[in-house]
């Protein structure tokens, strides 16, 4: 699978299953894309503070990346870590669905 | 003036040829250019193949590169499928003629969390189209999206947008759809496609498979509503473009020999009209094949080509049998004037046979065609089917100005009318062969029951088959009517 070269992997990130790598696919600054970014940040800060990394891929700039992650819908969020890879679509406004879809454990 | 005229035609009804034999004829040149065509049918009906052929031929023959977004098959599987037709997808991709993008839609890995659209799909398609300057697009089968995405309201709006997008970009597209129970497609894709809808059908009755193609809708083009039989073989799809009941063929006035001088004599001394159709019916062993072989041989002797369809015997068997009645057919085979094509009648259905027959005729362009016998074809289908299918075949042969002979086996005591009624009205000439035992001695008799457009003899003659060949004896004055022959002519004679 193609990786965006914009990020260097830190050893700590890939080590534990406790680190979350999320990639959000958008296409331009549409209302849904902006909403998805905001919603995602909010949820991550709430549930995964300090142990997540969000990468935003704008397919208008990098259309060649759409095939690798089998992107059809926009926005699509891909949970790359921890495994298995999970995919959820939509502007992430339904927080409960995001938590279920990403299999997020509530922070204890 | 003529230039301006042709320009108008081109802009209003431009067509993108599919390169599929027969399909371009029944659609008047191909699919509507720059528009979306829906090809629908049940699983295994050949819709993906049709779509792929449209793309491959476009790329190879017509200089129109194409993109396939495949929602069902991975690139490897698709590559193998296309390779079986003799095309190398990898090579085509390298030459920037054809790109395949496998779109995986799996519901279990997609959760929906709010509003979205299918911009990702648009971006992928547009990226591929730009990469090779594509003119053609296939979406096979986009209905897979319905099983992957729960929100059908969004999906439908996006499909509408997608079809508009394709047209805005002047792409000629084929979209495939699975047949629904009461609708053309399961998810009603036909509602979005205004220009051209083609339905494929694959039926299996009594273990015989028949494939048919129907043009449901084609805006701006007159098209037959008939079902056209089609064939899938190693070279892909071929559609039989038989247009029935057109009756626009020219009637020719020149004549061809029947192969038997005495029979020519019975037909104004000249034989059959060129381009006419001849039915030879008779019970077993009355010499139908011999008559057909003589007809074929006479054509070859004139330097014409003959295509001989054998449904009962192998070519070598026919050659041997004809040698025994003084006919050397092998010389014509060697000179490539006589071409045999042997088929098992039950291997494919009537439509399949007619499709195969049509394909071979189109390839070889013979002057003369023999189908020996049609009886087996008749048994492979209902009488109605036979009539409509044969009508199309006969019509096609006439348009091509091919003289054709069909033999038909009848059974002693069995009324001839059933098959005769279905077939004979399509024929210009009907020759009846029969057995009779006037003085306890069994002999073969021949008479011309009808022959349109000529003053033919109506008297039965004895048909003598010997090592010297086929000869006709003197006129039989003592022929017994009605009891041995149940043809309409004989019935009329008794009244």
- CATH architect. name of chain A: 3-Layer(aba) Sandwich
Strands ordered across the widest β-sheet of chain B? 5-4-7-8-3-9-10-11-12
Spatial separation of the terminal alpha carbons of chain B: 64 Å
Q: Count the strands of chain A?
A: 4
Biggest sheet, spatial arrangement of strands of chain A: 2-1-3-4
Order of helices and strands of chain A: HEHEHEEH
Stretches with pLDDT under 50, minimum 5 residues of chain A = 1-15
Number of folding domains of chain B?
2
Query: If you average the pLDDT of chain B, what whole number results?
Result: 83
Average pLDDT of chain A works out at 84
Q: Helix count of chain A?
A: 4
Helix and strand composition category of chain A = alpha+beta
Overall number of domains of chain A: 1
Q: Which protein chains make the most extensive interface, counting residues with beta carbons within 8 Å of the other chain's beta carbons?
A: A-B, 34 and 24 residues
CATH architecture classification name of the largest domain in chain B: 3-Layer(aba) Sandwich
What is the name of the CATH superfamily of chain A? Glutaredoxin
Q: Tell me, what's the shape of chain B?
A: elongated
Task: Describe this entry's structure for a reader.
The complex is a heterodimer of chains A (108) and B (495). The longest helix of chain A has 17 residues, at 31-47. Chain A is of the alpha+beta class and 108 residues long. Chain A has a four-stranded mixed β-sheet with strand order 2-1-3-4, covered by helices on one side. Chain A has helices spanning 11-15, 31-47, 65-68, 95-102; strands spanning 20-26, 52-58, 76-81, 86-89. The model of chain A is unreliable at 1-15 (pLDDT under 50). Chain A contains four helices and four strands, in the order αβαβαββα. Chain A has a single domain (18-98), classed as 3-Layer(aba) Sandwich (Glutaredoxin). With 495 residues, chain B is of the alpha/beta class. Chain B has two domains: 11-239, P-loop containing nucleotide triphosphate hydrolases (Rossmann fold, 3-Layer(aba) Sandwich); 255-494, Rossmann fold, CATH 3.40.50.300. In chain B, 34% of the residues lie in helices and 26% in strands. Chain B contains 17 helices and 23 strands. Chain B has helices at residues 2-12, 23-26, 47-60, 75-83, 89-94, 119-132, 144-148, 152-168, 261-266, 288-301, 315-324, 330-334, 350-364, 375-379, 383-399, 417-423, 488-494; strands at residues 15-16, 31-32, 36-41, 66-70, 98-102, 110-112, 136-140, 172-178, 196-205, 208-218, 227-233, 236-239, 255-256, 272-273, 277-282, 306-310, 338-342, 368-372, 403-409, 429-436, 443-451, 461-466, 469-475. A nine-stranded mixed β-sheet of chain B has the order 5-4-7-8-3-9-10-11-12, sandwiched between helices. A nine-stranded mixed β-sheet of chain B has the order 17-16-18-19-15-20-21-22-23, sandwiched between helices. In chain B, helix 13 runs parallel beside helix 15 (383-399) and helix 15 (383-399) packs parallel to helix 16. The termini of chain B are far apart.
